Amino acid sequence: MNSKNVIWQAAVVALGGALSFGALAAVPASEAEQLKSTLTPFGAEKAGNKDGSIPAWSGGYTTAISGFKNGGRRDDPFAEDKPLFSITAKNVNQYADKLTDGAKALFQKYPGTYRIDVYPTRRTAAAPQWVYDNTFKNATRAKIVEGPLGAIPEGAYGGIPFPIPKTGVEVLWNHLLRWRGESISYLMQGVLGTADGRKVMTVDAQANQQMPYYAKDGSVDKFGGDYWTLRVMNSGPAVRAGEGIVARFNVNGEEQTWVYLPGQRRVRKLPNACCDTPTPATAGVMSVDDIEVFAGPNGRFNWKLLGKKEMIIPYNSNKLLKPTKQDEVLSQHHINPDVMRWELHRVWVVEAELKEGKRHQAPKSKYYFDEDTWNGVLADRWDANGQLWKTMWMSSIVMPDLPATSSATFGFYDLVTGTSYTNVLVNEKSTQFKVMPRYPDSVFTPDGLITESIR
Fold first, then answer.
1. What does the mean pLDDT of the chain come to?
2. Going by C-beta distance under 8 Å and a sequence separation of 6 or more, which residues neighbour residue 127?
3. d(CA 405, CA 407)
4. Would you state the pLDDT for residue 260?
5. For 419, phi and psi rounded to 5 degrees?
6. CA-to-CA distance for 299 and 295, rounded, in angstroms?
7. For residue 102, what is the domain's CATH number?
8. pLDDT greater than 70 at residue 395
9. Do 155 and 138 touch, CB atoms closer than 8 A?
10. Containing domain of residue 352, as a range?
């Protein structure tokens, strides 16, 4: 990475991104005080950049969107914004230092259609005060310890675990434990894009998700370890109608997944719900750790923190929710550039390299995490031949009702085969990310799956 474009943190240089540890201690109280002065409550640089293209953070976006009712379609609060400029195959070299390898590869692969429209940067990230308070506490009490499936957080609850990160794996856990509310419901579809440009729906479902880590009345002592629970009930396509899936992600690195198969009228537990195993939630098109740029245990890789960099990334993507037809969203080989909003933001860059003796389809990856929200927004993966193979993306949307700038539609492009996948498409649905009261934990269990499926 070009050193001119990287803002290295002194502590990162000192540690060298090393992950040889028994336990990495939390930051001292004096350093945590930065979260109340030069840093945002989530640990981002509060100030803007030198030329003003990234403004200072001033509290995020918490203004109710006019006319919005919980459970309805979500509007774009920045619909009047116009692009500052557009990046095409003709001028991409001017912006190469602000783009991922995957983005540049897409310009080469689809020079006549791929485009990035760059809008004014809006730092909309926000959270309730109690989440900020917990983040401040986490800064001095949370630490990384070595677990059986990788590096795991200890002593964190209800906020960003490592708001002043020192290692790549801490940044990764900030993404996994990012703020996106406690309980959400949405109707969605997943679509496979074939190399010849056809669109094949793989899932049409009702999804319910819960983040027990963010139960407001919880605590470090009460937290049981399951930080993300998910239930997906399929109504289509016809071959999958009636299928149900429940998944539970635990901070110890374990993911438990059960599938209800209507033909058998039985629930089966997946034996290896991990890593590059295909996930049934996408009909096997995505692997487990493709979900939302990265999900699941981290133990197969060494995680190196490369530093912080200004990058053009998908952001404030409510515009993507506006079309009512998928054909308006999905072009022949990629997302329609007309519905994507990109902005310049600072991101943490983390590289993952396969450990000796471990196996994975992608032995090397590079991830980009937004400093304000900790959302993983972009990633590139290389195959065993060293070829840039897959580039992944995740949109984020403004949800002032939480408040949050939360993850939403996500997907990948296979640069080798020309296929793609887009998941959590909500455009043809009347409900777009409904904030829910807390679900009973039984909803996300095999027994709850059986009950719901039989109905």
1. 93
2. 41, 42, 60, 179, 402, 403, 404
3. 7
4. 93
5. -85, 170
6. 12
7. 2.50.20
8. yes
9. yes
10. 85-126+166-201+298-425
